[in-house]
Records
---
Amino acid sequence: MALTHRLPFSGDGRKPIIVSNPNIPKGYINKGKGERVEFGYGGKLNLVDKRVLHPLRGDNLLDTERKNYSNIDSLTVDNLVKKSYQNNQDPNEILAMGLQETGLGQGEYKNNPLHNNGMIDDFEKLKQKNDLAKRLGKTSDEERIQSWNGYGKVFPIRGSFYGLPINKLESMNKMGPDPNDPDGKKLVSYGVQKGIDMSKNPIYGKQIVNLRDSVIKQSPEIQAIVKKHRPKLPYTNIGSFPMTTFE
């Protein structure tokens, strides 16, 4: 028989409820829907990716491309949410970045969920990137988030890039002067890498926004943590950009 754990609340008028879970000592409530959410500190979260379409290709998302995880450490999510609020960042957005980068701390990235390889703190680096986006006149969420991944160009090497098949990036043949022709009159064909200009097509930012809205925000467990740490003040703006994720 599963053990039950009573959830204490202080001073908010709500009655404690019983959550059945033999392994997890605490839990959260999804207040908006009145649902019981059976997980807590030290437990593992089950994240199910129910998306149908690929956010970049527009065709069906393959099962191998889904961000399904059954072993996300709830402490990792909890810490990212708290730090997001403390640093005036959107926690849903930060969690989506962590999901894309490391599966929210899978394997060797347990202590580095945002895959920040530099010496600078994650959130200090995020602030610098957001400031860069603002200076460059980037206004949409996709353009701003792209700053974390960079605004340069990517060129075809092999396979795919963020799920885009290589034929979207393949070289184009053009004609130009033959460098071996001393008169410069002979034309030869040459390959020019088409690439993707991420300052014009923020494919990383598009991926993150899709994960934020269609995966992170659709998880009752994760949203319970987001709501648990949400500041009580009626924030209308957070950081350098208006917030649109808080209910």
Note: The CA atoms of residues 43 and 81 lie 16 Å apart.
---
Amino acid sequence: MPFLALFLPDDSCCIPEKSIQSVGGKPLIAHTIDQCSESETFDDTVVSTDDETIKRVAEEHGGVVPFLPPAELATDDTPAHLCTSHALD
């Protein structure tokens, strides 16, 4: 079951709430989830976020959000391997 994991912390350093900002009439995250679905490469697009709004928007657009990560893993500078390990546990 191949899946793509997206790590989207709420505390973006440059653009507040960038994952849910509207781009071309839909949230930015929706474009990513749509592209993953259309690729037919992945069974699921798993989204890891510490933000309930991002979680809701991701789920509304077909993303799978099975958990909210701990705060220490939800920063822009958290190494990807730590987020990946947590997501797979």
Note: The helical segments are 28-39, 52-60, 80-88.
